[in-house]
Amino acid sequence: MKYTAFFSLLIVLSSATIACKKIPSTSSGVTPTQTATQDTSTRFQNPLLTSGPDPWVIYQDGYYYVMHTTGGDLRLYKTKKMSLLGQSQTSVVWSPPATGPVTRDIWAPELHRVNNRWYIYYAAVVAPSTTHRMWVLENEATDPMTGTWILKGQVQLPDNRWAIDGTLLQLNGKLYYAWSGWENEIRNNIQHIYLCTMKNPWTADSPRLRVSTPEYDWEKQGMPSVNEGPEFLTHDNKVFLVYSASHCSTDSYALGMLAADASADLMNLASWQKSDQPVFGPNAADGAYGVGHNSFFITPDNQENWILYHANPQPGQGCSNNRSPRMQRFTWRTNGYPDFGKPVPLTTSLKRPSGE
């Protein structure tokens, strides 16, 4: 894999009406039809659910907690076995009020644990405008399926521009926040990846740094040109920022990656190197189109690394509810970089994650 130093491009961005839209919003959200995953002793097959765009997973106290975009609410899955996600406990932990600033187009929720409290980040339209901002809920309960979720409000990010797909990294005593956004609050044609430091889970305490912008042809498929869905991955002394590139309406949607030393100043653009090729992408021969918006997990015994991502089973399905969550194990190269391989066919029987 060749890596080249990243140089920012100052380009005008896209309008809210043509941004990389996840799924149509409904008042009640989208209820995915769960797959009847075969409960064998050692094997499973993808997809984990028949629908579930932008899947997110976190492991805590013996359980995996999973979220994905529904469009109209925040839904949480709780399971001891990721391969049996379709049979897990499920609860709508928050629904938007009938009126107010965060009532529709609720995208890409993520659950995080910071200082013994739970936080859910999500993007939503700020009424009466048509542009998105990041929002956050807090819960003091040990189990996020219980307790009370309190809306802390809009995440206070630098410059207060259009923002979606926020995620957190806790590293070396610092809290970092990455998201996809616009350079200016205007109608434009680019989504970038930004990074800042946080003084608490809802307030930034640094200017934003634009760490990635669509510059290669494989990042510019569809309109607008998109970098979105940033996710952190750490290994040994490296920090990786994996993101989704090109518009979600295209079959070419794929994952790109930036890398930095964990000891480096992550708020210095020179610390990051960007891949000039996708690190994981569509596999038409095996029924994986529009591959992206992923998350990662490590098995409880720390033996296996897995990627959770969405893909369409047929070409031309775009940003729809046909995007289903899939997972597969990945490995590490001798240089310390991840090797994600390629999406495995839905017909392939996979060994369950270690510990199941």
From TrEMBL:
GO molecular function: hydrolase activity, hydrolyzing O-glycosyl compounds
Domain of life: Bacteria
Entry keyword Signal: yes
Name of the protein described by the UniProt record: Family 43 glycosylhydrolase
Range of residues in the leader sequence: 1-19
Pfam hit, one: Glyco_hydro_43
SUPFAM superfamilies referenced in this protein's UniProt entry, alphabetically: Arabinanase/levansucrase/invertase
Family: Belongs to the glycosyl hydrolase 43 family.
Keywords, sorted A to Z: Glycosidase, Hydrolase, Signal
One BP term from GO: carbohydrate metabolic process
Active site positions, chain numbering: D54, E228
Site (Important for catalytic activity, responsible for pKa modulation of the active site Glu and correct orientation of both the proton donor and substrate): D165
